[in-house]
Amino acid sequence: MSKTLLCLLPFLFSFTSYPGAPLEGLLINLDHTIDKKEEYLKSKNERIANIKEQLVQGSDRNSLLVRYKILDQLFEEYKTFHYDSAFNYGRELLQTAYLLKEDSIINAAKVKMGFTLLSAGMFKEALDTLNSIDVSSLNTIFKVEYYATLGRTYYDLADYSNDRYFSQRYDEKGNECIQKALSFSLPNSIKYLLLQGLAYMRIRDTAKAITTFETVLKQPGLSRQDSAIACSSLSYMYRLVNDPIKAKEHLAKAAINDIISCTRETVAIRDLAEVLYHEGDVNRSYKYVKVALEDAYFYGANYRKMQITNVLPIIEGTQLEIVEGQRRDLYYYAIIVTILAVFIIVFSGIIFRQYKKLHIAKHELIQSHKYLEQTN
Questions:
Q1: Which whole-number Å values give the CA distances from 338 to 326, 332, 333, in the listed order?
Q2: Any idea which of 126-130, 180-184, 323-327, 345-349 has the lowest mean pLDDT?
Q3: For residues 82-108, average pLDDT
Q4: 178 with 170: CB under 8 angstroms?
């Protein structure tokens, strides 16, 4: 079976199996996808190794621009996969850009560094980097990325501060940035729809946000990462309108796409674990939160680790209580079985003795009968 087909199977499976119980089918598919996680990581690492080989082979003879492009490929592979590597290649990218002495390339590299710093929860550093950019030097594509990243930074700051005064100000700045990003985006493109959905989501216009993200999922050529973003966002909106089934379905789809695309800077499977925990599905919740913890530690950003460690002790504690309860139950069952076994042994002994007596009596009766026959 080809690698391409292998990668497609879980995605297709999630939409074609279990028509009578789509949520349970998606969760089973997610479990299968988790079991195949190492295969996807192996393909990812092979792809990275091939790009690194190009960098080593061409280090002596390639121009700075070619080196910049190879470093850019490595950065893109790592940016949602491993923070330290993304940061290091982002720095190399920026250093190479300075050697090229082109403002547009330097500022484009800064946009990428801003994204990495934001993903790691380093909000001040992200803002310092983004605010040092000369936006006028950027082409249209990077203007969209610049304002989208800046908007996300303010949104994340609003969520992080969780303060009525400061959060409102950060949200307002974030809204302004997203509107600027939209003004440079191609209308009705995937990027445009994702940004539009994000804008609706932040102002809690649930109906428009749901419609927009559902439209994203119908777009041809949608990448797994964009699909995961749309599904994760839809899940949040469905939780707001109190539709837990659709919320869990979209979280499961997002988690499947994250695993297949090897995105480890993610919150979908963590959120799914939290939702399932509150609904009493502790076993699955514990399994998923362990995957989320593994992803957070592999990605390496302290901000992501903190998000998981806020949830993990609660779920882990409940899981330990269940295991301890099962252990106690097994202990009591063992005692009951032991007592029953003792009774069985005792009664078996009694029955055996009675059987032996009966056998002797029967033998005596037969002898008596023979004696009577002889006497007669």
A1: 18, 10, 8
A2: 323-327
A3: 95
A4: no
- Report how far residue 298's alpha carbon sits from residue 45's, in angstroms, rounded to the nearest whole number: 14
What count of other Cβ atoms lies within 10 Å of the Cβ of residue 184? 20
Q: What is the mean pLDDT of the chain?
A: 85
Query: What is d(CA 266, CA 264) in angstroms, rounded to the nearest whole number?
Result: 5
Q: Residue holding tokens 């490595």?
A: 74
State the DSSP code for 121: T
Distance of alpha carbon 263 from alpha carbon 42, whole angstroms: 13
Q: What is the pLDDT of residues 11-64, one digit of tens each?
A: 333 333 333 368 999 999 999 999 999 999 999 999 999 999 988 765 444 588
Rounded to the nearest 5 degrees, what angle is found at the Cα of 108, between the Cα atoms of 103 and 109? Answer: 100
- Alpha-helix runs per DSSP H in the chain: 3-16, 22-35, 37-57, 64-78, 83-100, 103-119, 123-131, 140-161, 164-184, 190-202, 206-217, 224-240, 244-260, 268-278, 282-299, 302-309, 312-375
pLDDT at 236 over 80: yes
Helix-helix angle 164-184:190-202, to 10 degrees: 160
Mean pLDDT to the nearest integer, 131-155: 96
CB under 8 Å to 305, separation ≥6 — which residues?
296, 297
Q: What is the dihedral of CA 105, 107, 110, 112, to 10 degrees?
A: -60
- pLDDT of the residue at 68: 94
| CA distance linking residue 232 with residue 253, whole number of Å | 8
Which pTM was predicted?
0.78
* CA–CA dist 3, 8 (Å, integer): 9
126 burial via Cβ count (<10 Å: 0-12, 13-18, 19+): buried
**Tokens 């899940």 sit at which residue?**
235
